[in-house]
Amino acid sequence: MAKPSLALIAEAKARASAGVDYSPRYGAICPWCGERAKITKTTPWEDNIRLRYHRCLNERCVLKSLNIYIKSVEVDTIGKTETVK
Question: Is residue 15 within 8 Å of 68, Cβ to Cβ?
């Protein structure tokens, strides 16, 4: 396996910090290896957004070996809706 470049590692780290989408069905996907990541912390709902932090479980993943957490963002699209009177 070829060594990853520092630019690719920096890009994956930035994506992990910025936040990936969270799906209740599929969870959060590691931006480096594409595997499903395990939830390590879930924050309370704030308005219609909840943040989660994950760790990749893939032993060969660069983000796991560098001990980098992956942030995910879940948005509740059904929660607060406007009603028509």
Answer: no
Give pLDDT, residue 72. 95
Closest CA to 56 of 36, 40, 42: 36
Q: What is the pLDDT of residues 11-44, one digit of tens each?
A: 889 989 999 999 888 999 999 999 999 999 999 9
Kindly state the DSSP code that residue 27 receives in the 8-state scheme: B
- The set of residues, in sequence order, having a beta carbon less than 8 Å from that of 40 and lying 6+ positions away, is 53, 54, 55, 69
- Comparison of pLDDT for 57 and 80, the residue scoring more: 57
Output the CA angle 77-72-29, nearest 5 degrees: 110
- Give the separation between CA 40 and CA 10, rounded to whole angstroms: 22
Place of tokens 């059904």: 78
